[in-house]
């Protein structure tokens, strides 16, 4: 059996957890296994925050050295706890070299006073590059042969879209097979840095935040593994966010399509792109709990043999904004929507939802909140003469509620039940969208009403 296991930051937050992770790998690994690891918990956020402060001139060289020194000490302490005997010294040397490199990079940013997408990718890569040697050393301490590699060294080659790079699939598949197959065939466990890869020129790229899951799926697809295991801090994919609805329960089996919809609309257990390579190769993805390894978690498959639940889960996505492009001049004018979407695409603004009434007087769009200012600015510039679009309005205090379930296909009255439950809870719906797949009904509410809406829907469809 051949498996890819991925461990996130919560599984690697300190030396004790890294030791536990290494033990889980030893106890549960099959004959052939690849490990993908994230940075230690919180490290990537620290790197981003510090790099931005440096670019703004808020930290001097002494403060940069102090930051790197603290980071090195955290990883040194973790190494001393997780790695034993002769295996410890090589890891400490790797960490010292990486921290020396990071210090030079950050001081270079302070001289230039600018943080480019390429340089922030470089800075962010140090999180995974520092954690991977410790995990590999912890495995060797338990008698499991291991070596660590960056995502690029493992064979993942991407385009040069820094920050949101995409794999060059043919080349990546070829290189991953050539690099990792011989290693796992001889019984070693390669520990690969998640999230980071490299472009055709070998420059470090990242697969967007949370991309370690995607790394695991890329490697799993290239190696045609039997399963991909995503180890996290919950027992699997939940029917909704348990912090919002205490009655949330673990879903035992879910389809690729359902999982993709949930991931896209804010469920944090999986990176949205994780499903694509696994689905293409028909590789089950299993979500398991590092803190409860005996639990088999949630398995994601192509199709369930029997669909019992009409609605499988309710997802809430809060960091979004509603844009309304309106004007009576839009009526009967061809190409207005195309102009809107082209302008946003050129600025790399990701559109999450779209709705347009038959009156053609307005187009409603949902974007990520971090893209809002950019989106408003470009649309106001494109339609500056006011002859077609009179106004571009926005609302930042909104949330997406996504109702997901393959059992909705062909089932009459689901939408009526959804909106009756929400209305009975006293929640106003601002915008609605439903795809032709019928596995998802998404709508917008005020952010203050999101929990109320999620609970009402969970009570209506899921609560026993």
Could you please describe the fold and organization of this structure?
By secondary structure, the protein is α/β, with parallel strands linked by helices. The protein contains 13 helices and 17 strands. The protein has an 8-stranded mixed beta sheet, with helices on both faces. A hairpin with a 5-residue loop joins strand 13 and strand 14 (362-368). The two termini are 37 Å apart. The relative contact order is 0.10.
Descriptive terms for the model:
13 helices; 6-stranded antiparallel sheet; 464 residues; 8-stranded mixed sheet; 41% helix; Carbamate kinase; globular; VC0802-like; alpha/beta
Describe the structure concisely for a colleague:
This protein has 464 residues and is of the alpha/beta class. It is built from 13 helices and 17 strands. Helix 1 crosses helix 5 (117-141) and helix 7 (212-223) runs parallel beside helix 9 (275-281).
Write the layout of secondary structure elements.
Blueprint lengths: L1 E6 L7 H14 L3 E6 L5 H13 L5 H22 L5 H25 L4 H25 L4 E4 L7 E2 L10 H17 L3 E5 L2 E4 L4 E3 L5 H12 L3 E6 L20 E3 H9 L10 H7 L3 E5 L8 E4 L11 E14 L9 H11 L4 E6 L5 E7 L3 H11 L8 E14 L9 H11 L6 E4 L5 E7 L3 H12 L3
Parallel strand pairs: 1-2, 1-8, 2-5, 3-5, 4-6, 8-10, 9-11
Antiparallel strand pairs: 6-7, 10-11, 12-14, 12-15, 13-14, 15-17, 16-17
